[in-house]
């Protein structure tokens, strides 16, 4: 595991811990980008047609409304993780995910009133096709954070 992945994992863990700690009764909750309501995570794998991970592939997530982009890169197993700053008002926003010459249009879907559940989706690039699996997001993130 590289230093970059360790830093990403640490940032997500801090966000999860701070969100949980600050929601205790009697503790005033501060607003910050480390909290669930300010982030949307896109993660997945880039593999070849035989499901072998492709290392070093640049992955970019672009907010169509603002044009702002977030960059990621696959690790040795082809795994990538991008954390974007999307607030409650961004539910339904269109995003564009790019990996090499492949482009996928996504819609950010989450419950704006839910500030406890991590927000995001999983998109895998398998050979020349892409597959979005929002239901696999939580388990994939949990597996990544437990490494």
The number of helical runs is 2
Helix content: 10-25%
The ordered string of helix (H) and strand (E) elements is: HEEEEEEEEH
Whole-number average pLDDT? 86
Structural class: alpha+beta
- Low-confidence parts, pLDDT < 50 over ≥5 residues? 17-30
Superfamily (CATH H level) name = Immunoglobulins
Shape by Cα distribution: globular
> Strand tally, please?
8
Reported by name, the CATH topology is: Immunoglobulin-like
Instruction: Quickly count the domains.
Output: 1
- What spatial order of strands do you see in the largest sheet? 4-1-7-8
Keywords:
single chain; about 150 residues; alpha+beta; Immunoglobulin-like; 4-stranded mixed β-sheet; 4-stranded antiparallel β-sheet; 2 helices; about 35% strand
Set out the fold topology.
Elements: H1 3-22, E1 40-47, E2 58-63, E3 69-73, E4 79-84, E5 94-99, E6 102-107, E7 120-126, E8 129-132, H2 137-145
Parallel strand pairs: 1-7
Antiparallel strand pairs: 1-4, 2-3, 2-5, 5-6, 7-8
Descriptive notes:
With 147 residues, this protein is of the alpha+beta class. It is 20% helix and 33% strand. It has a single domain (3-145), classed as Immunoglobulins (Immunoglobulin-like, Sandwich), CATH 2.60.40.10. It has two helices and eight strands; from the N terminus they run H-E-E-E-E-E-E-E-E-H. It is globular, with a radius of gyration of 15 Å. The protein starts with a helix and ends with a helix. It has helices spanning 3-22, 137-145, and strands at residues 40-47, 58-63, 69-73, 79-84, 94-99, 102-107, 120-126, 129-132.
